[in-house]
Amino acid sequence: MSLNPTLAAVTDRIIARSEATRAAYLERMRAARGKGPARAHLSCSGQAHAYAAAGPDQQELAEGTTGHLGIVTAYNDMLSAHQPFETYPALIRKAVRRAGGTAQVAGGVPAMCDGVTQGEAGMELSLFSRDVIAMAAGIALSHNVFDAAVFLGVCDKIVPGLVIGAQAFGHIPAVFLPAGPMTSGLANDDKAKIRQKFAAGEIGRDELLKAEMAAYHGPGTCTFYGTANTNQMLMEFMGLHLPGSSFVTPGTPLREALTVEGAKRALSLSALGNNYTPVCDVLDEKAYANGIVGLMATGGSTNLLIHLIAMARAGGIVLDWQDFSDLSDVIPLLARVYPNGLADVNHFHAAGGLGYMIGELLNAGCLHPDTKTVAGEGLENYVMEPFLSEDGLTFRAGPGQSLNDAVLRPAEAPFQKTGGLKRLTGNLGTAVIKVSAVAKEHHVVEAPARVFHDQEAAKAAFKAGEFTGDVIVVVRFQGPKANGMPELHSLTPMLGILQGRGQKVALVTDGRMSGASGKIPAAIHVVPEALDGGPIARVRDGDLLRLDAVKGTLEVLTTGALEREAATADLTAHQHGTGRELFSLFRRSVASADEGASVFGV
Questions:
Q1: Angstrom distances, CA of residue 546 to CA of 458, 530, 553, 559
Q2: What count of other Cβ atoms lies within 10 Å of the Cβ of residue 94?
């Protein structure tokens, strides 16, 4: 199958746009490779420090004759998705010794849970934690004693941060090792209904807590298709996971075998062998284009509209939202996973999962087949699936057809012909909207605005019964410069109730809404943000707004609205407490959302 012409054109313009920055990045990586791991050049004292606690590996490290693997871990046992990583270092060290190498934990990176901080002050640190993770990964590898690295991370900001950090050391190979999703608990749709009942005052907190505990009940990633599981999909589409490894549940023999194989594979790709595959060669323009395709075909999290841009820039590649929108127009939606459907990621994996989907997209010409991956040359490797036999871990051809067409469909009979993501432009600025789970009758909303400077004020108005007609809720001063761009996911139950009453409702914000925005039309990531004096700062209560996801427009229709002075907000309450005072430098220097909302330059 020939390559889809839109995919080819978008990739070509990414390559052209990135020519200078990509060339400069690759030159830095070539220079770093030429110097090689510096442990052989360390002073005797330096080497003694590095190997002092290496136990049985101490002598081999001192002699410098074996490959040495660095482990960068985001382990903590408050995140269910990261709790399984507690045992990974010992497992990896043992596996690498058997393969004739050595391994050390190079360092740890922070990992916070957006599920815990939703609606709380700590959420204002969430986006910035991505760049902290990248810097921490850089510190972990800064000793320059490793021939390859494995990265242990799963959740929202952790994988993007680790990818940014890995690209700073792009001259060495990197394999990402997931922990997998928790087993299925209370169905996500049932959980959402309980949340709506609580928001409407129909049930008490005891019933809400019981439902939440039944949904989030054990080790592993949350089972809905939010940012964490979108990250896992990307690592396969972009060639940094082993094939079929993303959605294997924790604590199983197959999960352990994949961890062992991933560590051995990382070391086998170092410059010491014949299959040298540095991460700078894996994460090229085609890999990022494939990642965008995966995002559209699965209906993944809108957070990746920021993260992929920041990740790409770390490798000298410049993406913009138009790339996403153009690919969305031609990439079929092949999956229905909550909140875009009733199934969870375990159901998706059982139906054929990423291997089936990658095969369908390759056959349809919707993916670049000729990429480098940690599994070998070509994305065709990712049509395979892992299984355990008497000979140990083996890869075989995955299912040739979907095992549940309510969850996963072939490219010629998709759920919809487009990926369901639109770039919106108009006199209110530029934004994005995800409509893969939004009913067609809600794709265009024209209604009066109600304007708020935080989500708590919007929820208070709802509780006071102020939303009685059609409304476009505007929540501004939520951008990265204002308060770190927290997710506004706690607005979802309120907006869902209004929509369920038959009201036309939408959200417009310079903040984030994540992959769990679901059925509500939401124009998010509006730039310029209100704190920069963007048009959103001039909207007032009662102004007539129009969000049109069909034409791709976002406008205020009230005459003279944009001639007003921009509103201001007292943000002092967002500058201190819960660690926020530590991030004032980030708020002052962060780029806009359409540039990745990062504190790092290209």
A1: 20, 18, 8, 13
A2: 13
Helices (H), 184-343: 188-199, 205-215, 227-237, 253-268, 279-282, 285-298, 304-314, 321-328
Strand order in the sheet with 102-108: 102-108, 68-73, 148-152, 174-177
Backbone angles phi, psi at 166, to 5 degrees: -60, -35
pTM exceeds cut of 0.85: yes
CA 489, 495, 500, 505 torsion: positive or negative?
A: negative
pLDDT above 90 coverage of the chain, percent: 79
Rounded (5°) CA angle 199-200-203: 85
Q: Are 259 and 177 in contact (CB under 8 A)?
A: yes
Instruction: Encode pLDDT of 446-463 as tens digits.
Output: 999 999 999 999 999 999
Taking the alpha carbons of 294, 297, 298, 300 in that order, is the dihedral positive or negative? positive
Task: Provide φ and ψ at 523, rounded to 5°.
Answer: -85, 110
Which residues are bridge partners to 424 per DSSP? 431
> To 10 degrees, what angle do helices 253-268 and 88-98 make?
50
CA distances in angstroms from 323 to 17, 283, 409, 556, listed in the order given? 12, 17, 25, 26
pLDDT value, residue 257: 97
Residue 69 pLDDT greater than 60, yes or no: yes
Pair 235, 241: CB distance under 8 Å: yes
Identity of the amino acid at 496: G
Residue 180 to residue 266: CA distance in whole angstroms: 19
Residues 6+ apart with CB under 8 A from 280: 25, 26, 29, 167, 170, 171, 315
